[in-house]
Request: fold
Amino acid sequence: MQMCEEEILRLFPERIRGRWQDVARQAEKLQEIRLRAGSPLTILVDGRERFVDAQGKIVDRQEAAARQEGAELEEILKHLCQYSIYAFADEIRQGFLTVQGGHRVGLAGQVLLNGEDRIVNMKYIRYLNIRIAHQVKGAADPLIPLLYERGRVMSTLLISPPGGGKTTMLRDLIRQISNGTAYGRGINVSVVDERSEIAGSFLGVAQNDVGIRTDVLDGCPKVEGMMRLIRTMSPQALAVDELGGIEDLRALRMANGCGCKLLATIHGGSLEEVLYKNYMRYAMEERLFERYVVLDRGAGAWGIAGVFDREGKPCIRR
Amino acid sequence: MYKAIGIICILAGCFGWGNGKIKQERDRIRHLRTMCRILERIRAEIGYGKHTFPEICLMLTEINSECYQKCFRRICEESAKSGSALPLLWKAEFEAFLKKQPIQADEREVFAGLPDRLGFQEETGQAGSIGQAEAFLSQRTRQAEENCENRTKMIRSVSILAGLLLTIWLL
Reply:
């Protein structure tokens, strides 16, 4: 674990850092900080919801919690945007921003639509969900033996509900596959890091260890990024986070057709749940992925609930 | 003999004072030009590169002006060390630095108070806001440049005249 108190404290303006000292001490177990205007300061530590009181103490009773002021929330948002909101306009429009260290901040407030009902901006941002990114080196250790076949890595899809550790697992997979493991030598991995969550790039440099043979295309939409990387970086494996539709599948199909191995994640509680999505059924029929890994926080051993082969037959089921 | 030395000293003193004033005027123009150049760079980096304010400060550590370079280095170092808000560091650093320079109070306020102009949600508006500060300082630079020649002549004449008058009065 490489999270440190300092990194958590730096998410907040200097003036209010004192209140977050106790929370920062929980850095390694801290998953979320939820700030809602007029509501109690809430944190998620080790899967458990807790609150923060006016003195910065972590408490269990919500009545004892301090309430978030709207003006302070705006100050926090400005600080998170490095006082350069214009630079994060696209991210704000999409409802999230990624800050230094790869932490993702979800935003909610009032959206502004254009004539075609498309979101052009967001104002009165009154809800922030700071999701703390953790690089867990070794998280993919139990998976690695199952993802290699005769010394070559297999295309893998990681499945879990939100907050299930998909990105953490993907990051470590990328690192290990790029560096090389006991089961196969290192290969060139290209990453389309649409939300800067995998590599946590800052000023174009990956803040997380993603391996020595990894190229990162930061902030680029998945479909465009995948095409671009295949053409320019000749990757042996291509990694993307959070597949979300038929367009992504088309790009993956193209990458697969070019001989690239695929490493991807998708939201879902189980393999069956994922296969409800039409495009994922096609992906299985076409055998786009050779391994499906279902993650679950309660499943132990870094949350691996099951590993399935290209036909959906279990290799491991806990 | 002493009178002659006294006259020379008075004349030299007045001439020196005049030269000092002229140098101050030229320094002011130099500072105004540098500040305009910095603002122009900031505006361009925001408008075309959508760089964040800390990124721009980092770029400005390479600016071709030693004293400003040092200021930007101090701002970036302090920000990296303590994680303090960069706009506050900018204000504090430039308030202190520009106070020692021969520029006018409103020019100092515009430059040191630049972070007050941040907060726009899109780059065109933000660049435009920086552009206003740049336009103000550019206008001041033009005025100062236009007046510089005349002022130089005037200061030099006044200083020599003052020296002569002082000499006559003391004699």
In short: Residues 94 and 119 of chain A are 8 Å apart (CA to CA). The longest strand of chain A covers residues 119-131. Chain A has a mean pLDDT of 88. The first helix of chain A runs from residue 5 to 9.
